[in-house]
Design brief:
The protein has helices at residues 16-27, 42-49, 62-69, 86-103, 122-136, 157-161, 180-191, 194-197, 211-217, 227-233, 235-245, 253-259, 268-274; strands spanning 7-11, 31-36, 53-56, 74-78, 108-111, 141-146, 148-149, 164-167, 177-178, 200-204, 221-224. The protein is α/β, with parallel strands linked by helices.
């Protein structure tokens, strides 16, 4: 294939991460396709209206993936444990890798997570296992591993409107994170620099504000959420916030920004100023 692919298939494009990547690639001039289980759904149709071609398929259906992959120069793949658990996420990864081989796919970009394979977090571990299978394959691959998303705080919008930001990370602990739009721009930059990224893993963070600084960006006060209360809702989230509260991702955000100068990096404070509270 040429140095820069022309047609990109995005998996998970009806979700937040995949949708952001698909829209960023479309804005960058790529011909973008989206793998969707239900082409008639409102989210899928919204993508179609923006100029993204819909391709029917399922992450656990190898023939449908093989067919979909055959029509793309590169694929940005996302797996998820949040519907049926980490075991299914690993099966999704296995199916994607197998279908990529069947289709003779020229480049598979896997959307993983920063610290996969070293953090004791179930959905980090499952993504790490997919990465291991990918590394053992004969495919041309790149792993894109984002940290925490700025947009995660939008789940607390009602509290933010009340001038509070509840989060289960200590007030003074830097939290490496990135805007979804910036992640999409990084994927576009990686696609334009194929040789540099083949069989490489890239962890992504654009900023590392503390929770206290995050709250201040909204004109709100920080409220620490007890890890015990997180555990009552989800063992996976408890493990993640325990990791973020202690060790953390440890990404050199300045180095990431310097590596991708073509990305218009947004600080958390800048991003927060644009949120309609």
């Amino acid at each position: 294939m040429s140095e820069t692919p022309e047609s990109i298939l995005v998996l998970g494009a009806t979700g937040t991460q995949g949708g952001a990547v698909a829209r960023s690639l479309l804005a960058a001039g790529y011909a973008v396709q989206a793998l969707v289980r239900e082409p008639g759904s409102a989210r899928a149709q919204a993508l179609a209206q923006e100029g993204i071609e819909l391709v029917p398929g399922d992450l656990l259906d190898r023939p449908s993936l093989t067919y979909a992959f055959s029509g793309a120069d590169a694929v940005y793949a996302i797996t998820t444990p949040f519907e049926h658990g980490a075991g299914e996420e690993e099966r999704q990864g296995e199916t994607i890798i197998a279908a990529a081989g069947d289709a003779g796919l020229e480049w598979l970009l896997f959307g993983s997570v920063a610290s996969a394979g070293r953090a004791p977090v179930p959905h980090f571990i499952s993504k790490g296992h997919v990465e291991q299978r990918l590394a053992a394959s004969e495919l041309a691959w790149t792993v894109i591993a984002p940290s925490y998303f700025y947009e995660n705080v939008l789940g607390s919008m009602q509290a933010i409107r009340e001038r509070k930001l509840p989060i289960a990370v200590p007030a003074d602990k830097p939290l490496h994170q990135v805007a979804l739009a910036d992640l999409g721009a990084v994927v576009a930059a990686v696609l334009a620099r194929r040789d540099e990224h083949l069989r490489q893993r890239v962890e992504i963070a654009g900023d590392a504000p503390t929770p206290a600084e995050m709250a201040a960006a909204f004109g709100a006060s920080y409220e620490q959420v007890a890890l015990a209360s997180v555990r009552e809702r989800s063992e996976d989230m408890f493990a993640m916030y325990s990791f973020l509260s202690a060790q953390g991702y440890g990404i050199d955000a300045a180095a990431v920004r310097a590596r991708y100068p073509e990305v218009l990096w947004t600080s958390f404070a800048e991003w927060a100023s644009r949120v309609d509270v």
